[in-house]
Structure formats: structure tokens, C-alpha cells
Amino acid sequence: MAIVRPTLEHLLDIANGLHMQLSREQASEYLALMQSSFDAYDLIDELPDCVPPVRYERSSGYRPSAAHNPLNAWYYRTEVNGAPQGKLAGKTVALKDNIALAGVPMMNGAAPLEGFVPSFDATVVTRLLDAGATILGKATCEHYCLSGGSHTSDPAPVHNPYRQGFASGGSSSGSAALVAAGEVDLAVGGDQGGSIRIPSAFCGTYGMKPTHGLVPYTGIMAIEATIDHAGPITANVRDNALMLEVMAGSDGLDPRQAAPRVDTYSDYLDRGVQGLRIGILQEGFQLANQDPRVTASVRNAIAQLERLGAHVEEVSVPEHKIAGSLWLPIGCEGLTMQMMHGNGAGFNWKGLYDLTLLDKQAGWREQADQLSASLKLCMFVGEYGIKHYNGRFYAKAQNLTRMARAGYDAALARYDLLVMPTVPIIAQPHPEPGCSITEYVARALEMIGNASAQDITGHPAMSIPCGLVDGLPVGLMLVGKHYAEGTIYQAAAAFEASVDWKNN
């Protein structure tokens, strides 16, 4: 049977945990009344689960040896061949290791999930295969995706393709590193605080965080549903646009998607930027750790857009800084409830659940001391806000996101795009093993200041490589109106065609 019926002692313990006091006589009466409910549980257990079928053959794959994985960017290798024809025919793909690929292990960078094997494919996986792509495996990601550095993954730190021992960015660390190193053409990343765009900036790839809800998150392990995004990481703009065309649109299984507006993004690539109105977001250059060399590189890239015919001027959006602050209660309290207490899914939504993931993720409690310091920090903040303030700061922050979005929208009513540095710094060295908690966390979170804001407001944002500082890539971030990814691609393609960013 599905439910092992509780004993009298079990029920007394449950009542106590719910702050109720029952006599043994009352508990016995409730116990008898509960049985018919559990009969329904038994019936549910007998029914087959309703999950998508697996349509493409694959092997379970293997963990590559260190000799065949010099960047530690692969978690698992396999090969899944898609349709013989399609927009992505001949293209190879790596999946961030929080994305379900049926029959292939998924660890999400965290030891508590080691050994978990999904039973169905994420929607984006099926769409990529339907478009002719070949999936070559799972890219290493950071510990439960809670790091903008690349030193927190339980398999091993991921190295920057431009410099061994330096961060490739996170949390889609392996995804960007593999594209930059030329080991795959395309990769899928996830972005809750910049996790597509940060590694793209550090590794010199093109990373698009689409409008919230444009790409279905179905089959991808959630952090917090209101800031979960998935998107493409590529070596050029055209591949990025084609990949988003394939991935975008409602799947009927993800409540994050209200009524997403899809477009043919590749149609924008040859339009140029003549007459495009671009606002230089002043607050995006005012982070405390802003490297002046990064500023100069980004300013030079903006000047190139102006030379190409764009109308460029400074603009202030004070809500940009506010949005970054809103991320903390939303991200910390939200992830504590959904990813940790909710075992990776949570309640109160009609999305597709992975039952085996729920069971496996529940085991984090037995390995809680081994969680990364960056995750622990977020959980401590989140749990304090939940327990001592009843979630009111999470709730108020969600209310204020409408104000933050309105601030961006007001600027984007006057400009087609906003631009700023993706991150304020270039890739930093990995912290040494045994470093202090302070240093470990600093290397994980020091770069998110600009990128987290658009996860709160939901606006599309893309990092494109625009230069090198000390031999390491610099990212320019382009932000557009909701569902205006095409305009971002328009500017990105014009810039890409006009400069050699490695010599810019």
C-alpha cells in the first residue's frame, strides 16, 4: 500500500509538531477518521504516473576521466542523437546538470543528489532533439546552482578556458566553459541571479537570459519559481537566436508561463543598429567593486554601437539597485522553502513534478553539514526571515518587484535597449582549498550586482563578449523590453559583425 498507516504515537508526535495537544482518546478518534483519506492515497499509488514519454534513445553514459576533462566542465558524457533534420541539425549540445536527461545521472553539483537518475526529459531537451541537435552530456554546475564563481561544485572546480585555476563563472560554469573551449556548439544554462550571463562574461560566450516564462522550466530542478530562467549559451549570436527559437514557447506544464510571446529571432540579425535608441545605465557602472578596466572595455563597446548608427545616451534607473536588494529575501527565503524544505519542488502549483527527485532531494537533511557555504548562507538568511518574520519580507519584496519592473519599463519606453557591464570584474582565481568561509562566499557572490536585477524584473538580458582585460574576457550586457529578445539579438549581431572582440 502507498501509505504506512500512522500509529497512535505517530499522530501524537505530528500534533505536537503542529503546536496541538491531543489526549490519547482524541488521537484515537482522529486516527480512525484518517483511514478513508489514506485509502485515496493507496488508489493514487496504484495509478501510473503522468509524465512525458522518452522519445530518443541514449546510453546511461560515463564520468570522463581527468585526462579527458581538463576543465572539469563535464559531469557526465553520453550521446543522444536528435531528429535527422531541423534548425539545429549538426549542432552539439551540453546540458547544465540541473536539467533532466532521462537515464543519465543528474547531480546538480551537489553530493546529496549523487546517484539520482531522471526518468523523463526536460521540455527543452525534447525541443532541442526535435530540432536535430545532438546532446553530448551534462555540464558541471555549481552546488545547487548557488554560486557565481566556479569553485563550489562537488565534482570539482571548473576552470576558465582562458586561464587554468581561474573562475569560469557560475552557476552554469561547465556550460559556458565547454562552449568557449569548442567542445560543444551550444549549451543550456539556468539563471536565477545571473547564472547564464556571469559565466558567459567570464568565458567569452553569448548567454541569453530570456524573459521570465518564455522558455519552459519543466524538468529543470527549481531554485525559486518566480526567478527561474533557462536559456542558451553559444559561441555566436546566430546560434543563440536559433536555439532560443527552438526552446521558446509554452509547453502547458510550467505555471511560470502565462502567455509567452515567441518570435523568429533570427530575422533580426541583419537589421543593424541604425537609429536604435540605447540607454547607458548609470547605476550599472556604480558597483563598489567595479574594475575600471572593465568599465573602459564596456564603454569602448558602447562607442562602437554608436559608430554603427545607434543613438546612445546616459540614463538613470534607480530601481536597478532596488531590484538587486529585492533578490535577497526572494532568493533566500524562496529557495529555502522551495528547493530545500520543499525538496526541489514545493507545493501550490500545477507544474510537472519528478517524484524520484523529491525523494532523493529529501536526503539533503542527512548531509546538511556538507552543503556549500554559499548555500548555507542563503538558507540561514531565508530561514531567519521565514521563522522570525513569517515571510513578510519575501511577500513585500514580491510586491515591490512590480515597482522595480515599472522603473525598467519606463526607461525602456524611451530606449530600445539598456546597456551596462555584465559583471564588474574579470574572472578571479579560485580560492585555495581550506580558505575561510568569508573568502569562499566572496568568490561565489562578488559578481552578481548587475545580473540579479533582471531575474527580479523578468526582463530579457544577454551578455556578449566585448574585449579582453589581462587576457580574460569582458561581457557587455544588453537588456530589453519583455519579449523583445529580437532587439537584443539585433544589436548583438551588429556588434559581433563589426569587431574582433579579442582584439577590441
Defining key terms:
504 residues, alpha/beta, Amidase signature (AS) enzymes, 2 domains, eleven-stranded mixed beta sheet, 13 strands
- Shape assignment: globular
Indicate the low-confidence ranges by residue numbers.
Answer: none
What's the order of the H and E elements? HHEEHEEEHEHEEHEHEHHHHEHHEEH
Mean pLDDT: 97
User: How many strands, what sense, and barrel or not for the largest sheet?
Assistant: 11 strands, mixed
N-to-C CA distance: 66 Å
CATH homologous superfamily designation of the largest domain: Amidase signature (AS) domain
Query: What is the CATH class name of the largest domain?
Result: Alpha Beta
Instruction: Please give the domain count.
Output: 2
CATH topology of the largest domain: Amidase signature (AS) enzymes
SS summary, helix count: 14
**In the CATH classification, which architecture of the largest domain applies?**
Alpha-Beta Complex
Quick one: how many beta strands?
A: 13
Which value, in Å, is the CA radius of gyration? 23 Å
Structural notes for this entry:
This protein has two domains: 8-46, no CATH class; 66-503, Alpha-Beta Complex (Amidase signature (AS) enzymes). Strand 4 and strand 5 form a beta hairpin. It has helices at residues 8-17, 24-46, 123-130, 173-180, 197-203, 237-247, 292-307, 319-341, 355-361, 373-389, 392-414, 437-445, 452-457, 485-498; strands at residues 74-81, 92-96, 134-139, 159-160, 163-167, 186-190, 206-209, 230-234, 277-281, 311-315, 417-421, 461-469, 472-479. It has 14 helices and 13 strands. The model has no long low-confidence stretch (mean pLDDT 97). It is α/β, with parallel strands linked by helices and 504 residues long. The strands form two sheets. An eleven-stranded mixed β-sheet has the order 1-3-2-6-8-7-12-13-11-9-10, with helices on both faces. A two-stranded antiparallel sheet has the order 4-5.
